[in-house]
Structure formats: structure tokens, C-alpha cells
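Anyone able to model this chain together with beta-D-glucopyranose?
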Amino acid sequence: MELSVRFRREMDKGLCRDTNPTAAVKMLPTFVRSTPDGTEQGEFLALDLGGSNFRILLVKVQGNGEQKVEMESQTYDIPELVMRGSGSELFDHIADCLADFLEKMGIKDKKLPLGFTFSFPCLQTKLDEIKSSIQKTSAHDQMSSYQSVLMSWTKGFRLSGVEGKDVVSLLRRAIKKRGDFDTDIMAVISDTVGTMMTCGFDDRHCEIGLIVGTGTNACYMEQMRNLQLLDGDEGQMCVNTEWGAFGDDGALEDLRTDIDREIDAGSLNPGKQLFEKMISGMYMGELVRLIMVKMARDKLLFQGNTTPDLLTTGHFSTNYVYTIESDKDEEGLANAEKVLRSMGLNPSAEDCAATRRICQIVSTRAAHLCAATLAAVMRQIRDNKAAEKLRITIGVDGSVYKNHPEFSRRLNKMVRRLVPDCDVRFLQSQHGSGKGAAMVTAVAYRLAAQHAERQRILDTLRLSREQLFEVKRRMTEEMARGLSKQTHDQTSVKMLPTYVRSTPDGTEQGDFLALDLGGSSFRVLLVRLKKEKKQKVDMHQKIYSIDQDTMQGTGEELFDHIVYCISDFLDYMGMRGASLPLGFTFSFPCDQTKLDEGILLKWTKGFKASGCEGKDVVMLLKEAVRRKQKFDLNFVAVVNDTVGTMMTCAYEDPQCELGLIVGTGTNACYMEEMHNIETVEGNEGRMCVNVEWGAFGENGELDDFCTEFDRAVDECSNHPGKQRYEKMISGMYLGEIVRNVLMDFTAKGLLFRGKLSERLKTRGIFETKFLSQIESDRLAMRQVRSILQHLGLTGSTCDDSVLVKEVCSVVARRAAQLCGAGLAALVDKIRQNRNLNQLSITVGVDGTLYKTHPHFSSIMQETLQDLAPQCEVTFLKSEDGSGKGAALITAVACRFKSEKLL
Ligand code: 0WK
Ligand code: 0WK
Ligand code: BGC
Ligand code: BGC
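re: yes, here you go
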């Protein structure tokens, strides 16, 4: 019992991040997280190396419902020399045996997935590390990043050039060297894991794998939260305890005897695997031999006689212990006599009884030591499950457990005494660990295939540098067509003149109303501009909501609502009945011939109010004001939110000559040379052009970058076929793109276990704000899960969360890159307009997506820098919204007007 508690402490040391490096019991993560889910199928090769036999197996798994498994295997010899030679020789030998096996099976031409049971302590890297490398490769090459590094040889193996190396690449190299066949090495597992999986196939309660054979070891299903070496805290993972090394740090010195020390000193790996050397088949016979030698020398046995056999290491094999210990006394004694005579001894009856007694004591100790550590593992599982009564099955294999009935009987008995409150079953593995290895391989193959499929789909959302250059080139072309009188009507990018000719010069003053319509919130503002610029601009604002019905009702209702808000704002400001100039930030494409007129070309984003398109929104507003009779507007300037944003920022930084919005929608404006704007008279100076790049792609310019998900989002949008570029970038649509990808993944069984929940089918549930939350670095996976839970996607796993995060980042990355490509086209146009080699310029930017997404702005700037390297672009976030800009423009316009009137 005390030993069991001691081992439990060792387990904690191995699991704990800080103590693992010095822990003797390494508790190695195996990355086997799920037991077979019944969907595995196919043909798999399995290698089983490390036990007393080296076996190669062909395992056929039939899926759908009742899984049937057929196996064919062949045992091959591993000569002693090879076990002590160079690593490359061993792997060459394995490759030769594999070739022979495939030959015999007549499947040499097939490239089958292979599971490698390599029964030595190995440090494994994450299976999902596979994930990162699979992107552009077949299942085969993906293995290059799946590593299984041998920590140290044990048992009868001690080869050079393998410890610290990745056994996968060593095997692959050996196979490549032969060149006459190929395989997909999908998984390397410990025989304990293979045994647990093999037994788990028949008994779902099997959560422990135990080997007592040449060596000894155990694995079990541990809670991820206890595996401090790994991030992720949800679900379980199989841990290979490598308990053979228990005591290598001196923890068992009070139990080890001189005989144990003698065995260790004579072993291939002194100081290592001390617990194993007290238990497993490789040493049990030797323990008995050394005890007999000691007793013979002390004249306690064989009248003190010894023989060369008795004095030779390994000449009392562990099999003898089994036979001498047969549960029938006389048979055991007879066997003892037979064995001792075969060693040249002339044993007396007492000698035979003593030998049998020694065998009993040695194997009893082995069984009880094993029971103590097993009990510790069972208590760990019981505590993890907080279960009163633990029902568990232990899958067992190994020649000692199988061929030594007294050992298994004593082990079972002592375990039940040490953990009486557990209902434990021992299930002997009938087919060796090969079946289990095939299952792990099948799961790895399924995971890899599912991953490859997910990446293939996500690749359609990943844009290459060349593609981004092409987007920039096409945007540049469309912008030129938008400015040219000939092609303006055909182009999708309208390059609308805004009649804003100059940025503020600080002389603006007075009180201005401003409306800010079209973004995620509708605001009414009062902006007080004072002459001396340095004094801050006074702004008062109130946010009003515009519900879906108003956005999509009649134009009258919409503008009545706007006027209602203005009058409410004026009351709130105590300015009832005032008459003020108004700057109307109307964030939709408008044709303007002057500042105080804006013909709405089309609604975008969530708006669809009838009777507005083709109308002058200034008139619509004025009519609504007239209908209300509460206040008057003496001048109205219509500006786009990009223009308002540019102006607001230009007030701080005169170099600001572009405005960018990445919010509900996306768009940009910039100061263009008048002589380039063929749709407006005059060639002097500059005018701000509202690019309306959201519409880019309406003539198919983006079709070969569009995915099925983009088409799905467009078809279900308020304005199908319109604003294609916007629908790949802006906040109103990113969540929907993600939701469509997640639905596709789920429908293909690649996510949420293929269960398509009603919630996931609901449009708009995946708000873009979730993308920003899910992608923020400091958000642990469980928080992603809680977002998914909140979205009603209950039952999602940790892996699901990882995937959702990946989809979000791929979709947001593409949006930022596309936006960067559009901006690169703009700033390079300005640079060429001004025949500059190097342009440094500022962009005023606003919009929820740009402001709140953790990575959007940096990815966009990276892309911009890469596609327009001759432009040094500074981004200035607009703190006060476009309202100030609208007021400034109105102020400039009013000054003009009053000057003109003068
Ligand atoms: C049979 C398993 C193999 C494992 C062996 C251990 O298929 O993976 O290594 O049992 O027992 P041994 O052969 O060392 O007695
Ligand atoms: C704030 C500006 C407004 C613009 C909005 C865009 O004041 O004019 O429309 O940003 O961002 P969104 O609110 O759509 O995220
Ligand atoms: C190895 C383990 C293996 C056990 C049983 C030990 O020597 O370190 O990895 O599971 O033998 O074969
Ligand atoms: C509109 C633009 C606006 C942008 C950002 C787009 O849908 O067409 O006029 O600037 O959204 O709000």
C-alpha cells in the first residue's frame, strides 16, 4: 500500500510541468485521444517490435456498424547481434522483413498506412503537429513532422545511433533505401497502448493497458487537464507511464536487494529500468539464478555445488519459473528437478522444494510490485472520474502474465486487495498489440484524412501572393475605368466624385449637426468648431438604433425615424426648433454633382428601404423634416463615411489623404487629381473620390477568388450579386462565411462529429464579433468552447474549438489580405499620380472590424507593405467617428457658400 502511494507521487511528478524533467516515471503523452469510433475502415500494416517476438501484421477493418477485423501476421526473428548492433542495421532488417511480408501477402505494390508498435520509451510530438504540415501534402509527406524520438533502449535492445533520434524517419529511410515498396507510417505506439486499444475494441471499459512480458509497463486514459506538458484541458489522452523506470532516481532503494543490484549491474542498461528489473520476464529467471548461486555459495543449496550453467547469466530462463511454479506441487517439484538436472546439478528433494520456493517468492514479489503500481493508476482514474465505485477493465499482454498463471492470479488478487472499491476486470489481449496498433493507425488515418479534407477546403480560402497581386492589378484597372468617362458606367468600382476639394485648414468655426448613418449604429451629433484649432472640437452625440424593419421598410419611415432622432437629440441638447447646417454621413454609394445632393445608387449592407434608390437623400431628409415641422436644416452636406473619416483624421494629420472603413461594410476614399476625374469638369487641384470598392467584383472580377461559401453568403444576402468584394471582407459577412464553412465541415463529418445543430443553420448567429473574440490570443480554448456553447453548439470538443478558431483565422486573414490588396492599388495610384518613387501618406481608418479584430489591421498592413513597397503608409484610427469630418466638410462648404454669396 505504501509503495502504491509512493508510485502515485511519482506519477504526479511526471505529469507536472515543473517536475517532469527530473521525474523517473516520465508519464509520456501518447496523443492517442480517442478510442475507435466505429467509422474506421481499411487495410493497415502493423509492426510489433520490442517484445519477445517481432511480428508484422496485415489488419483489415470493415466499418459501417458492426466493425469486423481480420488479421494475418508473420513473426520474424531479430538476431541477438542485430539487437546489439547499429540502428541502421536494425531498421534495414525491419524493412527487409516488411518487404518479405508484403511479398508473401502479394501487396507489395500497395502503399498502406502503417502502425508501428515500438515498445521502448519514446517522446512523441503532437499528432496535430501533423496538422500544420499536411496543408499541401499527401498523407505520406505529412508524416515528416510526426516524430517519435527514442529516449533510451530497454530490455535486450541496445543499438547505436538511435537514442535521441526519431524512429519514424529511421524506418522511412530504411524503406526508401530498399525502394521496392512504400508505406504511410501513421502512428508509433507503445505496446501498452496497442494492448489497451486491442482490448478496448471488445470492452469499452478498457482504459488501462498492461504489459508484463520481457519488460513491463502500463498506460491509461488520463484527463487532459492533468497533462501539464500539453495545452488543452478537455477530454482525455492516453499516457504511457513507462513505469519500468520507477526507482531510477533511488526511490526504491529501500526495497531493492543486493540481488537486484547485481542484476542491474550485469544488465545492458545499469541504473535504468530498476522497477522493471524486479518484475519482468527478462530478469525473473536471472533473479532466481542469482539467489540460487548465492545460496549455493552459502552451502544452503546443492551441498554448495555449482555448475557452469548455474553460474552463467541467463541460463535459468524465466520459462523455468513458470513450470517450476505450476500450481500442482508434485508437477512443480518434478519440473524443478528436470530443470536443475538440465543445468548439470544433482538436486536433492529439498533443493527442488527450495528452488520452487525461491521461484514463488521472486514471482510473488513481481506480481505484488506490479499490483501496487497498478492500484495507483486505478486510484488516479477513480479520482479523475470522482467515481465512488470505479468499473474498469485492464487490457493485458506479455509472456509473464500469459504463461505464468500463478503470476496473474497473484496480481489479480493483490490488486483487488489494494483497491477493494474498484470493480476491475483483467482482459487478456488475444491478438497482441497489432490490432490495437491498426486501430490507432486507423484513427490517425481518419484524423489525417479528415484534416487533409479540412485543409483542402480551407485552401480555397487561402490566397497566394500572386493572387493578391492579381487582385491589386484588377482593382487598379477597375479604378481607372471608374474615373474614365467612357467606361465609368460599365465598371463596378464607381470612383464617385465627392466635391470635397480640400482638407480642413483650421479656419472652420460654428455649430453643426451631423448624422452618421450606415454603420453599426446611427448617431446624431452636435459638433462645435472653434477658430483656434488647438482648442478641442466640442462634440455631443447620441446613438440611436435603427431596427431591421426600419432599415428594410419604406424610405419615408426610415427618414421619419431619422428626423425623429434629430428632434429628440435637439430636445436632449435643449436646442428645440434650432436651424443648423447639417453634415449627413450617409454611408452608401451616392452620385453627387455637388456637396448638398446625393443620389443613392443602391442600398448596401442591411439597408433596403424602398423608394430611395435613385433619389436625392438630401431631398428625402428635407421632406421628412418638413413633415415633422420640429426644426429646420439650413444646409445639408452629404458625405460618405470614408470621406468623413478622412476629414476627421486630416484634422489631426494633414498628410491624411485617404479614408478607409472596415466595419459593417468596407470602402475607401482618397484625394485624386482633378484632371484624372473625367466625370467632373476642371483640371486644377484635387478632389476626394469615394471609391466604393465594395462593389468590386460585381462584373466577375473576383469570381476566380470566390469560394462556394462566398457564393452561399451572397445568395442569401440582402443584395445578391452586389458588393462582392465587401462580402469577402466586411463585418456583416465574415461571420456568415465562417458559419457556412462550419456547416460544410459538419455536413462532411469533419466537425462537431457531423451533428448539424439547428443553431448552426441559423443565419447571423455567428456574429463577426465572435471572430474577434475567438481569435484574441489570450483566450484559452475553453473560452472558445464557451462561445460555441453560447451559440448553442453544445457538445463541441476541444478539437472542435481548435478548428473553429482556425476557420475564423483563415476567413479573417483573407479579408485583411484582400483589403490590403485594394489599399495597395490606391496608394500606388496616388504615388504614380505624383510621379514619386517613394510616397509617405496617412490613412484615416474606422470601423468595428478594423478596430476590434486582434489581427486584421496587422495582416492588412503586412499585405499592403508587400504589395506596395514604395509607399510608406501610416494608419490613423479615427477616435471620434466620421461625424466631426462631416461637420468640417459642412463648415468648409458653408464658408464657400457664404463667400460665393458675398
Ligand atoms: C505481445 C504484444 C507486443 C508486446 C508483447 C509483450 O503484441 O506488442 O510487446 O506482448 O510481451 P513479451 O513478448 O515481451 O512477453
Ligand atoms: C464609425 C463612423 C461611421 C462608419 C462606421 C463604420 O463614424 O461613419 O460608418 O464607423 O464602422 P461600423 O460601425 O460599420 O463597424
Ligand atoms: C519499455 C516499454 C514497454 C515495456 C513492455 C519496457 O522496457 O520501456 O516501452 O512498454 O517494456 O514491452
Ligand atoms: C457602402 C459604402 C460605405 C461602406 C462602409 C458600403 O457598403 O457602399 O458607401 O462607405 O459600406 O460603411
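The chain has 29 helices and 26 strands.
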